[in-house]
Specification:
Chain lengths: 261, 200, 222
């Protein structure tokens, strides 16, 4: 099977590093081109008859909001990889994705509140969607704090994987409760953002931006995974250096693969 | 310099650990405190270090710095190494060197003396138990204190480490220091024996 | 002086490194504040009225939570023994540790306040008032909380017990902190009166805290 071969190939961090080194420049270039096209199209898109130019925040906000959830699903798959298949790169993938996901979520929050400002008159309204995103942001931060709290990556990996999966199950429940809480307190008077069907003039730039941002995520994620792999190698080398007695030679202190840990 | 304790009694948790204990040690002399588990070796060292108040008796250090109390002129090497895993080896040592103050010795040389100079910039979390102990011992060297209070100093040390530490203790005694060490194993240096029994 | 500077530097470094807890306090502050609207409802007018109280409670709980390890960490690894034995007076060492804790864990709470003020619909003046009262009041929380942290070493137990011990002590700070913020927002009192009392409380705790903590540590070691 070609696919399984590729997967086993990728499981080897050295191969992963070599492969991503070749792919990353292309990915980065593609991301830049698509982002440029998307931004141009967004700028050229007509103003909304109700919201005016503020509607263009949507072209940034929606891809970020979408990615904020997509990254968590990527992390959940990686968490399964850690717990079930014990794939050596799964934890690296999950850990590298968390700060990027948190950044996208943060951008979704900021753009959301900027978008809401002209409509609500305040930067923040406890709107159901925005509030759910805020909770997602808190969960990202919590997960990052968990990784930071445990020094040994292999020990942190399983705890973080369990938390990620619990989060994945809980996010819909939280979303539902927040919706319920919100409608309980604020009957239908809220203006829903982007509620109506989208005009084609908006749809195309939005689609391009969504793809561009997804590519941005893939690029950043691969780069972050490389950094994480290298960081763990440095850690392993340091531990080897620590255990080496001062006056013995460096015999046997060659670089060793990470991953199996 | 002369360290002496008269009629010391120690009570911990309502239980009398030892009583009527006399001890003395002079400059250049080592006192090896021996005895079975529970005889109060650690308690005695903590009483000398000022970490535990004796129920009775008095402790005096004659000939030291009159401005300073005994604990302020002593190093205490307890069971725990007083290291922060988040800090590097050098940061750990430098902190104690700056915090304890007094006559200090170059930190690099102290690390070299305990064979940890190769790990100076590494986090202390990466050190083994024996290496942690070595780093702890480097603290004794980095700041000059005439009195060394050692609790099982050679536990966790390998043969080379014990050899090294014996050398360091000899140097300390030769420079006019004095040592009180609680130990199960032979100290490896000439020492007067202070036997603590359960029935004392 | 260099000994105290070294102690402050070490504690801040540990708090900010991997495994340190400084930023978790801010995260806790954020989470507690976000929870409040779910309990009281999303009415912005109500939230802006409750805002200072919510922020003060959040900051109080967050600073208490991180205080737990102030002395126990040093006690567990044996550092506390050496600090007690050292030539630095224990009172000063305690004050230095509390100062380091406030710099690493208390100051970030104040920096986070404007963002949380936004969530609670506080306007500029109100946010500024809350931040100013927190700046003046959180040292009091840290320095009185330190007494509890020192007792926790003696009792070999932290966490909830620490909260039970320290929370009553922090009531005056809470009263005058919230009163000063409310005064700045809506009156009728002038901001100055409760704020001066808040500053006085902080200054008093700066003196009482280290002495009480040092006394408790000295008698609590075994």
């Amino acid at each position: 099977m070609k696919l399984t071969e590729t997967l086993t190939d990728l499981a080897n961090p050295t191969r992963f590093l070599a492969l991503t080194a070749r792919i990353l420049p292309w990915l980065a270039a593609m991301t830049a081109i698509l982002l440029a096209i998307g931004l141009y199209q967004s700028a050229m898109a007509p103003d909304d008859y109700q919201q005016g130019a503020t509607v263009k925040i949507m072209f940034i906000h929606v891809p970020n909001a979408w990615l904020s959830m997509f990254v968590w699903s990527v992390m959940s798959v990686a968490a399964l990889g850690t717990l079930v298949w014990r794939h050596p790169l799964a934890d690296v993938a999950a850990k590298a994705a968390a700060p990027i996901g948190a950044a996208f979520t943060f951008l979704a929050l900021v753009t959301g509140s900027l978008w809401g400002r002209p409509m609500w008159g305040t930067y923040w309204e406890w709107d159901a969607r925005l509030t759910s995103v805020l909770i997602l942001f808190l969960m990202y931060l919590g997960l990052m704090a968990l990784w930071r709290a445990v020094e040994d990556p292999s020990r942190a990996a399983r705890a973080a994987a369990v938390l990620t999966l619990v989060g994945a199950i809980n996010i819909p429940i939280i979303k539902f409760s927040v919706d319920w809480w919100n409608t309980l307190h604020q009957p239908a008077s809220v203006i829903r953002m982007g509620g109506s069907t989208l005009d084609k003039a908006f749809l195309w730039p939005l689609l391009v931006m969504a793809i561009a941002f997804s590519l941005l995520f893939v690029t950043l994620h691969l780069a972050a995974m490389r950094n994480e792999i290298l960081r763990r190698r440095v850690r392993n080398l340091q531990m080897m250096q620590a255990s080496r007695v001062a006056f013995t030679s460096e015999a046997g202190a060659g670089p060793k693969e990470i991953g199996a840990a | 310099m002369r360290l002496s304790g008269r009629n010391l009694k120690c009570v911990r948790g309502g239980r009398e650990v030892f009583s009527g204990l006399d001890l003395s040690a002079t400059s250049g002399e080592a006192l090896a405190v021996t005895g079975p588990n529970g005889a109060g070796k650690t308690s005695l060292l903590r009483v000398l270090a000022g970490l535990l108040a004796p129920a009775e008796g008095s402790i005096a250090l004659e000939g030291g710095d009159a401005e300073l109390s005994l604990p302020e002129q002593a190093h205490y090497l307890g069971h725990r190494d007083a290291l922060k895993p988040a800090l590097s080896v050098m940061e750990n040592l430098s902190f104690w060197r700056e915090f304890l103050g007094g006559d200090t010795l170059d930190a690099d040389r102290c690390l070299a003396a305990v064979a940890l100079d190769h790990a100076a910039h590494l986090p202390a979390a990466y050190l083994s138990a024996g290496q942690c102990r070595r780093l702890s011992i480097a603290r004794l060297l980095s700041v000059r204190r005439p009195v060394w209070l050692l609790d099982e100093p050679t536990s966790a040390l390998d043969a080379a480490g014990q050899e090294m530490f014996i050398g360091l203790m000899r140097d300390h005694l030769a420079s006019g220091g004095l040592i009180v060490a609680a130990t199960h194993l032979p100290l490896g240096i000439d020492a007067r024996d202070l036997r603590m029994g359960g029935a004392a | 002086m260099s000994a105290l500077a070294a102690l402050i530097r070490r504690d801040i470094r540990i708090a900010l490194r991997v495994g340190g807890g400084a930023l978790i306090g801010v995260l806790f502050f954020l989470t507690v504040t976000v929870l409040m609207p779910f309990a009281v409802g999303p009415d912005l007018a109500l939230l802006s009225r409750l805002g200072p109280a919510i922020l003060w409670l959040g900051a109080l709980l967050a600073s208490l939570l991180t205080l737990d390890r102030l002395f126990t960490a040093d006690h567990e690894d044996g550092s506390l023994d050496l600090i007690v034995m050292s030539r630095t007076p224990l009172e000063l060492a305690c004050a230095a540790k509390a100062l380091a804790h406030w710099l690493a864990a208390g100051l970030p709470l104040i920096i986070a306040t404007p963002i949380l003020g936004l969530l609670l619909n506080l306007d500029g003046t109100a946010t500024l008032a809350v931040a100013a009262t927190l700046l003046a009041g959180t040292p009091a929380l840290t320095f009185t909380g330190m007494i509890g942290a020192a007792l926790a070493v003696t009792l070999h137990r932290g966490g909830l017990l620490l909260a039970v011990l320290v929370l009553p002590l922090s009531i005056p700070v809470l009263i005058f902190g919230v009163a000063a913020s409310q005064a700045a927002i809506s009156g009728p009192l002038s901001f100055g009166t409760p704020f001066s009392i808040l500053c006085a409380l902080s200054l008093a705790s700066l003196v009482i805290g280290p002495f009480a903590a040092a006394a408790s540590l000295r008698h609590g070691l075994d």
